Each structure stands twice: as structure tokens, then as C-alpha cells.
TrEMBL record:
One of its GO terms (molecular function) is hydrolase activity. Belongs to the glycosyl hydrolase 31 family. The keyword Kinase does not apply. Keywords: Glycosidase, Hydrolase. It comes from the Bacteria. Residues 26-208 form the Glycoside hydrolase family 31 N-terminal domain. The keyword Hydrolase applies. Residues 250-573 form the Glycoside hydrolase family 31 TIM barrel domain. Gene3D superfamilies: Glycosidases, glycosyl hydrolase (family 31), Golgi alpha-mannosidase II. Residues 683-749 form the DUF5110 domain. This is Glycoside hydrolase family 31 protein. InterPro entries: DUF5110, Gal_mutarotase_sf_dom, GH, Glyco_hydro_31_AS, Glyco_hydro_31_C, Glyco_hydro_31_N_dom, Glyco_hydro_31_TIM, Glyco_hydro_b.
Length: 789
């Protein structure tokens, strides 16, 4: 398609290459991130994912050889051949990733598929005619991770996917090619190397990860530009950092958003919420937020309240807040078509809605019946939507739940030719569909930020690459199936690798009726996911923690309380994540990519680097096979030390989720609270697993942007161990936030202690079961813990 290389010109960080038939550009973003571009539709990137990209100046060399043009950045060597085929090598000239130079050779599909369609089986729609297609060689052992919220297993090798935001309420199964989110980014891991590819194209895109043929994988699109980034890294963490360098990091949220959240479609009227509030407290279930689904609105009209169900929402929300409960309300994009409804009238007057090809407002159906679609690809419409957030914020709402923003439609899909402003360029639904939710989230974020000056809390169902800057995500309408509990782990792990560090699923399952055993096991996973929300559909069986029996309630309480204990650890991870791009919930392969035993682990995950969780995800199972990677791990419940790099069998009665802490960990804990912020925490507990390790704890006002001006404190703990003693050096490298801790409560998970000294003075300690408790003033110094010899 491109033809032979004719000439090339270096222009700053860009290398412009003239081929016989087209132009191609190699752009050096950093020495490890390279953009491959050819303007098929637009001369520029016109990216919705990448904003304010900092291009790092980098010296690079170009060499022309007989067959190729070679670019070296110091980290990478890139060889460009005729037809814009590009191969990437590391600096030692070891091949990382090569374009497949032959034609694609799909496997043969035998038989007459139309016949099976008669019985309702799906036809395979096979496409070999993409406008843009990049085919890469497979060399045998590649594994693929990322790609957003796709169903199935963690490793995507051997499957095909599509990026087309899809609201499909039938049970999500492995064969789904797409779900609600489009994150055209994946990480390739081979025996020795890893790299990422981000195909920044928001039309429908296609990813075949070696399904069609074991010799290659490809990504492709029907339209848009050839525009992809090759992201090099020494390890998978580097690749995630590189990808989020381009598309943005998950920002630090308000701390309360890490609390337990209770939701259900059908929480109305006001008295039902009061009842809920009472049940939460009576059953001793900590909770920070209650979600109001579409029922709170007047006839499902967004930015309105049904005053029969909620007679004085402002007062009601303020009373709830006094008691520690925040309210999160759902907002759908579909605006009810109804004259006299101010949102509709304003939108019509200003031409804010998408139109058909003749310029008439396009109408489809969602919850309110006939509805129209705000054109979020118009900055004026986004501004209007931002302003509308004020209506919710003024009522006292604390977070916005953006739903149905694929966009969903009940009257068939939006036709391809529905027209959008597309940032003034004009465009149709094919181009805007995948960024519709993304742009709605951006508008919501900007509005909430402006009105509250606090870190906005938004949950979205649909998104595109880069939405992590604006919103948290949940995985949409799962079902109360064990299979969906199982699948939630690879899904959340791959979302995390795809930049969406703040994510969760409907705990207990949305559709279908939950069982007590399923809820008991689900809360054991949910309490470790960043977004922790129990949500279910209307008319399904109740699934609040107390909806079944005493045992189920006790199990829910145990894990929700464990969550509250871990709040400072999770908050620290999010703070770190704002610079590294790493998620809270991580597949083992992220940190142990040299261990082939972890490549396919779908039923375990890490929380940060220190906690390994191996939940039971099968009905009736009371024992779990756990794989512990290299290092020493401590059973959280028994404190038994276990050497890693092996599988073990762990008894797992219904109330026990196998949890392991890495030797050398320091984990901050908060005391029990009904909700975050209930107590003024003056004493920080440090749960310590003696060994060699370092930990930095972060403290700020938990809600505002003052931390961006440096108003925060850092507490650093450096632990080292030898045969005689464990030393912990405590330092405060940054102390600009006015509130400080008074004390540290040091919990040493070891019994064999003879003496403890802090800054050379002997201090008392207390033995409690298998732990030693030490109380220290919160000052800098060196703690020495002498072992019993
Ligand atoms: C969609 C959402 C679900 C919500 C329902 C009603 O199905 O995914 O979470 O409860 O709509 O608003």
C-alpha cells in the first residue's frame, strides 16, 4: 500500500518518510515511546486519549541501509522497510517486535454457517478488508494482556476482540468480542521482553491476538489514521507507566470513595433510604455512600428529582451527610424528548443534540422513552453538561454515576450516519461512538471540579483510552453467577493494566438472584477492588449484607471491616499510582513476569506489591490451591511463613479468603470506623512483617487539590533485618500538611523479641498472641527490635 521508500527528512523529533504512494511519520515521543503515523483521514493525531503530551527531546540517529532506514534512540532501534513495515529492536539489537511481511492467511472455516444460523447460532463475520491494518509476527511464546474490559481470561493470546462500546445485557461470556469500554492498548510479554502497543484510533477497531493464524497477530480499523505507539519497557510496570504517560494517570480520589458503597436499582422513596441507613448501622456495616439509580428522577429526566419520592432532596441529603452517608446519583446521557423540560428545551434551542443526516434531532429510546443524545463531541455542549452538574452538586450529591453512555439505545443501534460536531470537524456515529462516554466523563469531571473544588468522583460504564483521568469505572451488568465472580478478576486486572486503576464490579452480581454463598465469596474479592460497590437490578433478590442469614452478614462485616482497616494502604497506592500509573489490583504477572507459573493465573491477584489474595471463586469449594511466587509469604490469618515459588493447598472455609503478605512489608492500618472521616485519626497503626523493605505513607486532607501545592505529609519507613535485629528507620521527608499523627502503633508480626529500643532508649512492648505491640510518639528516629537468640 505504501510502496518503496523514496526519501526521508528529519524534522525535530519526527522522521518524515516519503514512500511511493503515501507519507509515513516516525515520531520519537521519548527514547522508549515511538509513534507510527500515516494520515489516512486527518493530518494530525486528533486524539481524544492523549492531551497535553510532553514530547521529550531525544537525540536520535538515522542511518540508511540498502533494505531499511534505521533510527536509534539509545533505548530502541527501529528499522523501517518498504511498505512502511517497521521492526523494533532493543539497544542490543535483539528483536522485540516485527511486522509480518507476508499476506494474512486465515484458517479455513469449513461448512455452511448459514445453516447453523437457522437454529440461532451466531454467524462468524470475517473481515479481511480493513482500511488500516498492522500485522505483527508471532514467534511462539507471546502472551497478551490489557485491552480493557474484555471477557475471558487474563492472557488474550489466541482470541479476537473488537473495540466498539457495547451494552449487551445477556450474560457476558468468553465469546463476547466487545463490552462497554474501548481501550485499544495491549501489553506483549515474551520470554525475555515486554512492550506495549496503543492503537489510538476511536473508530471501530479489531484485535486478533493470534487467533486467525499462529504466525501473526494484528490490529486494524475501518477508518481513521494509522496511528499507534510502541511503548518499550524493562518490565511490565514500565510499559503501564509509558502508556499512562501518554493517556494520563488515575488521579488521587477523595478518600471516602474508597469506602464501601451500597447500591440497588429501586432504592426509593426517601423512607427506603432511611431504612437502609438504619440497617447499615444496626448491622454494624461500615459504609460511605449510597447510590441512587434512575428511580430518583422525575420520569427519568436527567438533572431532576421526583418530588413525590424525595420531597426535599437537599435537606434529605444534608441529613444523610451528617450521619456519614454520601449520595451518588446516576446520570444517563439520553435526554427525555419533552417540551417544557428545561434540559430538553435548552438543548433544542442551542442545537446541542446529535442529528440525523438531514440535520433533524436524532431520537431513539432509553429509560424515559423517546430521548435525544447530547453531542459531547462539541465543546459547547460539554460546557453546558458541566454546568448542569451544579444542579446535582447544589442538592448535595457527592458523586455522579454516568451510565448508558456507550451510548445505549433501546430502539436498535444508532445508525452510522447520526451526525456529531466532532470538535468542529463534523463526523458521524462511526467516529464518535467509542468516545461518547469518554467525552461525557470529561464534561462531568470538569463541572464537578469547578463547582466543588474537590477531586470529582465519577463512575462510568463506557469509556475510551484516557478516561482514567476523569472517571472510575465499573464493569456494567454482570450477573449473580459464579462464572462472573471468577471472570471479575482477570477483567479488573486487565482494566488496571489498561490504565484504569480505579475499577470495580457489581459485588453480588447485577442481574439474576444472588445466593448467600456467592455473596459471601464475592465480598472477599470486592473488598480488595478499588471501587467496592454492592449493586443489583430491580426485582432481583435482595443482596445487601444482611439480606440472607447471620453467617452471611458476619462474613460481609468481616471483609468490609478489613477494607476499612486497609484504607490508608489503598490510598497510598492511589497516591503512588498518580506518578507510576500502576493500579491497586494487579495480576501477578505484573511483578513476577519472569515466573512462567503466573502467566495464566486468573484466580489470584496482588493488591499493590505487598498483599496477595487468592479467593475462592467456585461454589462449594472449601480448599484453595494457591500459587505463591518467589520470596517469603506470611499467611495473613495464621502468621505462618511460607517459602514461595510453589503451590500450596489452603483450607478456606466460607468465612476465609486466603491472603498472604510479602515478608518485609509495612502496611498502614486505620482503626474501625462507620465511615471514612468519622474519627480524627491521631494514631497510625503499622502492621509489620519483619524483613527488608521500604514503605512510604502519604497523608493529606483527603478531598481537595491542596496536595498539588505540596500540602501533604510523607512518612518513610526503611526496614532492614539481620539475624540479631530488625531496624526501622522512620523519616518524614515531606511535612507540609498541618495535621500530623501523634503516635505510631507498631504491630510486629513476630513473637521472638527480647528488647526494643527507640532512638537508643529502651521502650516497653506488649505481647498479644503472635504479635508484639509497640507504641511510639510520631517522630523521626530509629526503632531497633532485638530478636530472642
Ligand atoms: C443499566 C446499568 C445498571 C443500572 C440500570 C438502571 O443496566 O448498567 O447498573 O442499575 O441501567 O439504571
Amino acid at each position: 500500500m505504501f510502496g518503496k521508500i523514496i526519501s526521508y527528512v528529519k524534522d525535530g523529533n519526527k522522521l518524515n518518510i516519503e514512500f511511493e504512494n503515501r507519507k509515513g511519520i516516525i515520531e520519537i515521543i521519548t527514547k522508549d515511546i515511538i509513534n507510527i503515523f500515516s494520515a489516512f483521514k486527518y493530518e494530525d493525531h486528533f486524539s481524544r486519549a492523549i492531551e497535553n503530551l510532553e514530547i521529550k527531546e531525544c537525540d536520535y540517529n538515522i542511518k540508511k541501509e540498502e533494505e531499511f532506514l534505521e533510527v536509534s534512540t539509545g533505548s530502541l532501534i527501529i528499522r523501517v522497510y518498504d511498505n512502511f513495515k517497521v521492526d523494533f529492536y532493543n539497544k542490543n539489537l535483539e528483536l522485540l517486535c516485527a511486522d509480518y511481511k507476508a499476506e494474512r492467511k486465515p484458517f479455513l472455516r469449513r461448512g455452511e454457517s448459514q445453516l447453523s444460523a437457522l437454529e440461532g447460532h451466531k454467524l462468524v463475520d470475517y473481515n479481511n478488508n480493513f482500511k488500516i491494518q498492522v500485522v505483527k509476527e508471532l514467534n511462539g511464546d507471546e502472551k497478551f494482556y490489557g485491552l480493557g474490559d474484555k471477557t475471558g481470561y487474563l492472557n488474550k493470546r489466541g482470541y479476537e476482540y473488537e473495540m466498539w462500546n457495547t451494552d449487551d445485557p445477556t450474560p457476558h461470556v468468553e465469546s463476547f468480542k466487545s463490552l462497554y469500554k474501548s481501550i485499544p492498548f495491549f501489553i506483549t510479554l515474551t520470554g525475555n521482553n515486554t512492550f506495549g502497543i496503543f492503537f489510538d484510533n476511536n473508530f471501530k477497531t479489531y484485535f486478533d491476538m493470534g487467533k486467525e493464524n499462529e504466525d501473526y497477530y494484528y490490529f486494524a480499523s475501518d477508518d481513521g489514521n494509522l496511528d499507534y505507539y510502541f511503548i518499550n519497557g524493562d518490565n511490565m510496570c514500565d510499559v503501564v507507566s509509558g502508556y499512562t504517560y501518554l493517556t494520563g494517570k488515575t488521579p488521587l480520589p477523595q478518600m471516602w470513595t474508597l469506602g464501601y458503597q451500597q447500591s440497588r436499582w429501586s432504592y426509593y422513596p426517601q423512607s427506603r433510604i432511611k431504612e437502609l441507613e438504619k440497617s447499615l448501622r444496626e448491622n454494624d456495616i461500615p459504609c460511605d455512600a449510597i447510590h441512587l439509580d434512575i428511580d430518583y428522577m422525575d420520569n427519568y429526566k436527567v438533572f431532576t428529582w421526583d418530588n413525590e419520592k424525595f420531597n426535599n432532596p437537599k435537606k434529605f441529603l444534608s441529613d444523610l451527610k451528617e450521619n456519614g452517608f454520601k449520595i451518588v446519583t446516576i446520570i444517563d446521557p439520553g435526554v427525555k424528548k419533552e417540551k417544557g423540560y428545561h434540559i430538553y428545551d435548552e438543548g433544542i434551542k442551542n442545537k446541542y443534540f446529535a442529528t440525523d443526516k438531514d440535520g433533524l434531532t436524532y431520537v431513539n429510546k432509553v429509560w424515559p422513552g423517546d430521548a435525544v443524545y447530547p453531542d459531547f463531541s462539541n465543546s459547547e455542549v460539554r460546557k453546558w453538561w458541566s454546568n448542569n452538574q451544579k444542579i446535582m452538586m447544589d442538592t448535595g450529591v457527592s458523586g455522579i454515576w454516568n451510565d448508558m453512555n456507550e451510548p445505549a439505545s433501546f430502539n436498535g443501534p444508532l445508525p452510522d450516519d447520526v451526525q456529531f460536531n466532532n470538535e468542529g470537524r463534523g463526523g458521524d456515529h462511526r467516529e464518535v461512538h467509542n468516545v461518547y462516554g469518554h467525552l461525557m466523563n470529561k464534561a462531568t469531571y470538569e463541572g464537578i471540579k469547578e463547582y466543588t473544588n474537590k477531586r470529582p468522583f465519577i463512575i462510568t460504564r463506557a469509556c475510551y483510552a484516557g478516561s482514567q483521568k476523569y472517571s472510575t469505572v465499573w464493569t456494567g451488568d454482570n450477573q449473580s453467577f459464579w462464572e462472573h465472580l471468577r471472570m471479575s478478576i482477570p477483567m479488573l486486572c486487565n482494566l488496571g493494566l489498561s490504565g484504569l486503576g480505579f475499577a470495580g464490579v457489581d459485588v453480588g452480581g447485577f442481574s439474576f438472584d444472588c445466593t448467600k454463598e456467592l455473596l459471601s465469596r464475592w465480598v472477599q474479592v470486592g473488598c480488595f477492588s478499588t471501587l467496592f460497590r454492592n449493586h443489583s437490578a430491580l426485582s432481583t433478590r435482595d443482596q445487601e449484607p444482611w439480606a440472607f442469614d447471620q453467617e452471611t452478614l458476619d462474613i460481609n462485616r468481616k471483609y468490609i471491616k478489613l477494607r476499612y482497616k486497609l484504607i490508608p494502604y489503598l490510598y497510598d497506592l492511589l497516591w503512588h499510582g498518580e506518578s507510576t500509573g500502576l493500579p491497586v489490583m494487579r495480576p501477578l504477572v505484573l511483578h513476577y513476569s519472569n515466573d512462567e507459573n503466573v502467566y495464566e493465573i486468573n484466580d489470584q491477584f496482588l493488591v499493590g506489591e505487598n498483599i496477595l489474595v487468592s479467593p475462592v471463586v467456585e461454589q462449594g469449594k472449601r480448599v484453595k490451591a494457591v500459587y505463591l511466587p518467589e520470596g517469603t509469604w506470611i499467611d495473613y490469618w495464621t502468621k505462618e511463613e511460607i517459602e514461595g515459588q510453589k503451590s500450596i493447598l489452603r483450607e478456606a472455609p466460607l468465612d476465609l479468603c486466603p491472603i498472604y503478605i510479602k515478608k518485609g512489608s509495612i502496611i498502614p492500618n486505620y482503626p474501625e470506623q462507620n465511615y471514612i472521616g468519622e474519627k480524627d485519626i491521631k494514631e497510625l497503626t503499622l502492621d509489620i512483617y519483619p524483613g527488608n523493605g521500604q514503605y512510604t505513607h502519604y497523608l493529606d486532607d483527603a478531598e481537595s487539590f491542596a496536595y498539588k501545592e505540596g500540602k501533604y505529609n510523607l512518612y518513610s519507613f526503611n526496614m532492614s533485618e539481620n539475624i540479631n535485629e530488625v531496624d526501622i528507620e522512620i523519616k518524614f521527608p515531606h511535612s507540609k500538611y498541618k495535621k500530623k499523627y501523634d503516635n505510631f502503633k507498631i504491630v510486629i508480626n513476630s513473637e521472638n523479641i527480647s528488647q526494643v529500643k527507640f532512638n537508643n532508649a529502651n521502650i516497653n512492648y506488649e505481647k498479644q498472641g503472635k504479635q508484639i505491640i509497640i507504641l511510639l510518639p510520631a517522630i523521626e528516629g530509629i526503632l531497633k527490635i532485638y530478636k530472642l537468640q
